[in-house]
Queue: 2 jobs
Job 1
Amino acid sequence: MNQAEEAQTARVVTPFPAPKIMDLPQFQGEHKESLYWGTDCPHVYFGIRSRTPRSLIAGLMWIGLKDGRYFIRHVCQDSDELSRYGWTQHNVRVFGHQLLDDQDMTLETSFLKSKGGGRGYGGDWAARIDVQRSRWNVELQKNAYLFLYLADEDGSAISLSQDTLHIHESSLLASGSRADNGHWQPHLKSKAIRQ
């Protein structure tokens, strides 16, 4: 039989007659809920999503400077030439910590989940982003430009808060509702450190 005839021959694939591993009882209930929110966003430097096919997602982008040109950093690319990026600590369920070194700027991101009283399915999560500069960059005028984003892959409405134009110490950014985890609200707590 030549390769062309072999490629035309029908194959029968019979699934193994057992439940899927993820459907077994030991992977349900509290175990499944503890893994609901996480940093499982492939190909981005920092992103948070639920483990559902179409999720509410949040993430980080920033402006980087290389050879006098500005670049948006979001998707992990070798051409960004970050000297370091990746999780230094991460236990999948509760917390994570990573460092991203982009030219003269270090971004430190942390992720923390909490579960308990009145929180929605999968619990609440918090992200902390800290920026340090190793030297002043005149072109970026001593500032770091960060972009936090929210999106709903299901296309559900996201209502922006009136506070978004006047960020206070603690401001509501947006709100919405989803069938899988109910009503949600991200808040921004900004802490400016002057040197």
Job 2
Amino acid sequence: MAAARCLLMVAVALAPLLAGVAGVQLSSRFYDRKCPKLQRIVRSAVAQAVAAEPRMGASLLRLFFHDCFVNGCDASILLDDTASFTGEKNAGPNANSVRGYDVIDAIKTQVEAACVATVSCADIVALAARDSVNLLGGPTWTVQLGRRDALNASQGAANSNLPGPGSSLDTLITMFGNKGLSPRDMTALSGAHTIGQARCATFRDRIYSDANVNASFAALRQQTCPQSAGDGDGALAPIDVTTPDTFDTAYYENLASRQGLFHSDQELYNGGSQDVLVRMYRRRASMFFLDFAKAMVRMGNLMPSADTATEIRLDCKKIN
């Protein structure tokens, strides 16, 4: 595994995939002169956070996904509500669920001390997601930088753009396709569920109602997730039943044995179009890691529309 990981760190040094908004082009060297210590600052802070709580790695990765899928990777998810808009933090997919805001705030404080008014919160989130994956045993990749921070946020867009845990395969393919991501990208990015935990409320229907669930697995999860809504809604369970703190291919092994925690997970291996790819990822960690890294770069290139007002926030929670 160590040899494979070393190989993958080289293999996923991906060729730059450029994107931009309002005339800004992303580049892996965007801060080389303006803030040369940026990536060291971010990685050190993420390493401390993950060492203290391995689950935080999954939380920072999810924060990036939930940011990018709502009007592009613009740190809008970090904004607190104001008198002029209702932000995304309390949207259905995010409330009592998305975490890691405090870690991003702490990193931003360190970055501002080193490079005042230079680095966007959106870029910090992108780097933190990459480092979280790598620190938990997954691949690394070159993060394109130069994003800017939105001046607004949309709870409605968060509610409508993020696929839920009860999504069908067709819904997943459509929602990822709406972001320019292929079914292969979707199946690779779903492998992020090899780390982290989920609340009972998000998988209750799966373990009590789905027919294609391993009976022993369902019984295990039912021990801490009662059938009645409201009871134990916040009880946590690992999304990957075998190695929840390690970024590996166990997620796909779980799908093959009908132990996907979410209905949407098991949809990837249920006699549909993604079965073959799930089997390939089970057998070839190198393929999964490479596809995941490529898909993360593509997702990271989701930009706000060109007419979106942006800035470099000094405090990630509020506009300047």
